[in-house]
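dude i think i finally got it to work??
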Amino acid sequence: MPDQELVDRCLLPTEQPLLLGRTLAAERLAIDTRALVGLNLVSGTDEGEIALLTAVILRALAAHGLPCIVFDLCGTACILSEPRGPASTSQAQPSHVVRLRVGDEVKLDVRQCSPAALLDLLTRFGLPNLPALYVVSQVAPRPVCTTSSGEAVQPSPFLGIEELIQLIDGRVASSDQVQLGAILGCLRMIKQEGVLASTPADTVSFPEHYETIRQGGRMIVDLSTVANAARGGVVRAIFDNLVRLHTQQNAGGSPRWPCLILEEPQLYFNQRDLHEILMRASSLGMTSFILTTCPSSLELGLLRRIDNLFLLSHRSGHELQSLANSGLLDHETASSLACRLGSRQGLLVGKATRRFPVIFAFEAVDEASATLPDHVVRRARSELASSGAATPRRSSSPPAPDRAYGEPTLPLFPEEAPAQASPLPPAQAPPREPAASESSREVSLALIIARWDRVLKRVGRRRRILETILSTARPVHLEGHTLLLGFPPQSRFQQELMASPEYRGLLEEELTNLFGVALEVTATLHPLSDTPQR
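look at this
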């Protein structure tokens, strides 16, 4: 059966088509937007690839008039400000982008925080549950009071962090100085973080910002400058405000709920709260996306509730086993396909494909680089160059369909491929004649030492734990293409971890991408000196 016929059979009817890219047979791949309602997971080893795929999905959703709320953890949101090409539908509305940096543009009124959000904020800053519940009870909405003369007294609509500190200081009994000191200390730490407003002018107007993107656009909430303890409470407060606002604005109709995108939410939410928020969003009919490079850190119950899985290249068997626990893919299928996916290639399985795995190639970097972060674009381009997929091979036959997505490196359905179509591994470039310049290229130890911090940052974007392991290491010797890393004697554990093929392979790959020379890394305990050997 031809690939396209299989795709047509497994995809749902597309009344609202969302263009993801092309199949590896160069056919357009469009899924129904409604099939994404629920919980979706985007996972891969490379954060740059996740960013590019998310940009494609967001632009397509905005073209359908769907508002998207992005909680950006690293300050490098993969959002396109305006599509450079024609919109995917003739009825597409112009999209808008609203960027809000928590602590600068976003400061919350205390009463804008729901009780659950305020309780989470207080407990994450170290306040025990009982005093935290007392503070929450003091800021609950007050009813309208009347004076002895019968005049109505409206409660103040604004409550800032300064007013809250004064309120608690005046109401806690003077005899309970321990409890008062704990509460005031916690509130002062939250005040220093800058997430709660001190004056009415500091508060953010969510109705105005949401109205800007209501007919199609993106609201990017930048969490990069906020302490990890404050992120969960801020996200929950914004989520509750959006739900309340959207419910009020669409009380008489059938609302289109916004799309939520959470980057690595397990880093600042505990599993119970994350499960609660995502399940509430799904029950309301929201489209939710989790972006993560470490699906094993997600709760099994949450993985079981995933409706669609967007899988990019994965090299870790442990992470693939966690994805297999979702029930959408078995471990053998995930491990056999994930390691063969090339640059800008992904696998979609779930409700949108009737649980049949479909491999696709999403759009080129040059078409999506209008507002992507510079380091993401540079990294994606370098990966394209190293994979050899930048220049597709053309024949003298009549022009084929547009193959801006590069030549396919593996068939759409591997089990149906003809025997002679043996694809190249994703990391192997097509055969080419040896170049004299490449064979003569050399790298010095001094150059590696000068760029070592840059190597650590590149490695950290792919695996944060590896950056931590290498933080105490220094290049100490280079002989031929063998680089010796020295760890101080007290870092024996880190030196033993670098013997892992997975960690060593990631470091060697980044060194090759940065210096253009394949280097083999060995690690040893070494008294680090200021004058390295050559």
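The chain has 19 helices and 16 strands.
im so relieved honestly
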